[in-house]
Specification:
The structure holds two protein chains of two kinds.
Chain A lengths: L7 E10 L2 E11 L4 E6 L5 H8 L7 E6 L8 H7 E4 L11 H9 L7 H11 L12 H13 L5 E5 L7 H18 L5 E5 L12 E6 L2 E7 H7 E7 L12 E7 L2 E7 L2 H9 L5 E6 L2 H10 L1
Parallel strand pairs in A: 3-7, 3-8, 5-6, 6-7
Antiparallel strand pairs in A: 1-2, 1-4, 8-9, 10-12, 10-13, 11-12
Helix pairs in contact in A: 4-5
Chain B lengths: L2 H31 L14 H29 L3 H5 L5 H27 L7 H25 L2 H21 L7 H27 L22 H6 L7 H12 L1 H26 L5 E3 L33 E3 L12 H8 L15 H24 L1
Antiparallel strand pairs in B: 1-2
Helix pairs in contact in B: 1-2, 1-4, 2-4, 2-5, 2-6, 4-5, 5-6, 5-7, 6-12, 10-12
The chains are: A alpha/beta, B mainly alpha.
Chain lengths: ~300, ~375
């Protein structure tokens, strides 16, 4: 059976702002129904990648496909399939929240009014309030409602939780994103870029870490947690000198030794056991720890 | 309500208040020309210069502003990304904006036409020039706004670029005004409008949302705007906080310095114009108040111009009025005396002598020239 068309297919994508190269030879593929994380430091190229998906930027090299469609040639068809929440949300200040949502609904063939009402209540937004008087967080909330209500097959979220308070942030991630994906399981895809990796920990199925416009690491989340492990060993005396080249990072603290292993966890554990530690424990890294360990190494 | 109607209404709404302001500016002339007792010896008798200034601004700033505002608003409110990320063709966005702009500008232009009707009742050339100017403004607004990435930048570039044919029209020398030259001029302006329309459409189709903040604005564009030596001098140091504060402010205000530089140059040109005029101390202003266009066939007739001929014989018919030290000659012919003459049913012919210029008009031309240079600099930087 042939594999389904990827929701997003990026191949050797490059884009430069003048002389500054934002993305270089980036490739990634997002399968339908997955929640895909795009992690990277500020200026890593996450927003540029997302803008290329929407044809807001034209790739200088490489190609981008959304459900097999070329955004540059089939712009409207691609945009019908996705909703986008940008990192800097802006609305027409003279419009009320109600008018803004109606205006954005006018572009869509379907708009879930029930979800809209629920989310407006959830976020405590006043539909009569002008968007010009909304705070940054409230504008983001309106943008999130506008992105979820059309119930598109792909949700592209660029730093969606920046500016949201912790309660709304948690609620948004658990309720909104969760409900969106559960609407039609296995069909609705999310591409999210964020610094707040911990907040999306339970949702991310697969991720790519970008640094300086290049993909540094692409992994399935479960596989990543298996592969990246933190090993702690406590010895009776100071830790012995060991060959720990296989470890990604080594930290010595008195009688304790802490290692971060990348795929060689079992081998390192065995080596440590040979020196009879008082205590030996191992645990999976969180996605944020993997992110930090990868970029620091 | 259909989706298209919703979007068109949104476009119309964004233009509504500026459109009202422009309409009021145009309608003021109508009110002034009415037989209101307030205006005839009443409390508002001295309001004419103000009305004239508002009317002038309304037409030469308001109309290009209306043409620019539809897209300029998207930059101003940073909503272009929102608009372009919706599932609608860019050409549809372009056409919807164009439709609303055309309706708004034409409605405003009609009000101005009726406002000025009694001033220039029998001069089709004025309406041709005005019409061509408006068509050119509407057509080129999208392109210039996308180049400038701001309403003000788009307005300036649009106004400057559309004024080039007007300035040329006022300054042309040695070209006899025949039906052929007129047709060629109209054809040239319409061709310009067509090309700009196509360029604007193409620019929107290819537009890339490269940034989000003020860095988008052409006037605030990167350090390339400033020569390296000056930039180095204005660079903040790790010491002297007070000087750093001044340096920072100087850098922030860089568009103002550029504009000041150009204004200074315009002023120097203006002074030169005054010098030239002083050399023609015997200059008199003449109104050729004939009744037929034939009277001016050999001359260069420019209604809407303040350049007046010193030699009445060149007007093609004997002048009926000579005035010296005319205090009501205004640029672009928004002239009370002119309206009074026109109200008597006579045609007004104002003529150009290239060697004699009103100082204010010299300033105008120099300013337009300087603004044109600014436009070219900006476009080059953009490239």
């Amino acid at each position: 059976m042939s594999s389904p068309t990827p929701a997003i297919q990026v191949e050797n994508l490059s884009y430069a702002y003048g002389r500054a190269e934002a993305i270089h030879d980036l490739s990634l593929a997002v399968q339908p129904g997955r929640c895909y994380g795009l992690f990277g430091r500020n200026g890593a190229g996450k927003t540029t990648t997302m803008k290329c998906l929407l044809n807001l930027l034209r790739p200088q090299r490489g190609q981008v496909r959304v459900f097999g469609l070329d955004p540059a040639k089939q712009e409207v068809a691609v945009k019908r399939l996705l909703s986008y929440v940008p990192d800097q949300v802006a609305f027409y200040p003279w419009m009320s929240v109600r008018e803004t949502l109606d205006y954005l609904a006018s572009f869509r063939p379907y708009w879930n009014r029930k979800t809209e009402q629920e989310l407006l209540g959830h976020f405590g937004l006043d539909p009569a309030q002008r968007t010009g008087s909304l705070s940054k967080g409230q504008r983001t909330q309106v943008a999130l409602i506008a992105a979820v209500c059309p119930e598109t097959d792909l949700l592209v979220l660029d730093e969606p939780t920046s500016g949201l308070d912790p309660i709304v942030r948690r609620e948004f991630i658990e309720t909104v994103i969760g409900a969106y994906q559960e609407g039609i399981p296995g069909k609705r895809t999310i591409l999210v870029s964020t610094h707040l990796i911990t907040e999306f920990e339970g949702l991310i199925d697969e991720f790519t870490i970008i640094d300086h416009g290049q993909a540094v690491l692409t992994l399935d989340s479960d596989h990543a947690r298996e592969r990246y492990r933190k090993i702690r060993a406590r010895f009776a005396q100071s830790p012995p000198e060991l060959d720990l080249k296989a470890a990604l990072r080594v930290r010595r603290d008195g009688r304790e030794l802490e290692l971060i292993a990348n795929g060689a966890g079992d081998e390192l554990l065995e080596r440590l056991r040979q020196h009879n530690p008082e205590a030996l424990s191992t645990e999976s890294l969180t996605l944020e720890e993997i992110f930090v360990a990868t970029l620091k190494s | 309500m259909s989706a298209k109607t919703t979007r068109i209404l949104k476009e119309a709404r964004s233009l509504f208040w500026p459109w009202c302001a422009v309409i009021i500016a145009g309608a003021l002339r109508l009110v002034e020309q009415s037989d209101s007792a307030l205006l005839r010896g009443g409390a508002l008798q001295g309001i004419h210069p103000l009305v004239e200034a508002i009317s002038f601004l309304g037409f030469f700033v308001g109309i290009p502003l209306l043409a620019t505002l539809s897209l300029g608003n998207e930059f101003h409110h940073r909503t272009l990304q929102l608009l372009l990320s919706q599932p609608v063709s860019r050409m549809e966005i372009w056409s919807e904006k164009l439709i609303v702009t055309i309706v708004a500008v034409l409605a405003a232009a009609l009000v101005f036409r009726y406002g000025q009707q009694s001033t220039f009742p029998q001069d089709p050339e004025l309406w041709v020039v005005g019409g061509a100017l408006i068509i050119a403004m509407i057509s080129s607004a999208t392109f210039w706004t996308l180049v400038a990435r701001s309403t003000m930048g788009g307005l300036a570039l649009n106004a400057v670029s559309c004024s080039i044919p007007l300035v040329w029209h006022l300054r042309r020398e040695g070209i006899a005004e025949t039906m052929t030259t007129r047709s060629v001029a109209v054809f040239a302006v319409l061709s310009y409008a067509g090309v700009m329309l196509w360029l604007g459409r193409r620019a929107l189709a290819r537009f890339q949302v490269t940034g989000g903040l003020a860095g988008d604005d052409l006037l605030m564009a990167g350090p390339k705007m400033m020569p390296r030596a000056v930039a180095e001098w204005l660079r903040c140091r790790s010491t002297s906080p007070l000087l750093n504060l001044i340096r920072k402010e100087l850098r922030l205000l860089r568009p103002v310095w550029l504009i000041s530089l150009l204004a200074a140059r315009a002023w120097v040109h203006g002074r030169a114009g005054i010098g030239t005029r002083s050399a023609h101390a015997s200059c008199v202003h003449s109104f050729d108040c004939g009744s037929s266009r034939d009277h001016v066939a050999g001359g260069r007739k420019n209604v809407g111009d303040a350049f007046l001929a010193p030699d009445p014989a060149r007007a093609g018919s004997p002048p009926v009025a000579h005035q010296t030290g005319h205090s009501h000659v205004h640029r672009f012919g928004l002239c009370r005396s002119a309206s009074h003459l026109a109200a008597d049913g006579r045609q007004i012919h104002l003529r150009i002598d290239p060697h004699v210029r009103e100082p204010g008009c010299g300033d105008d031309l120099a300013a337009w020239g300087a603004a044109l240079e600014l436009c070219l600099i900006l476009v080059r930087l953009r490239g």
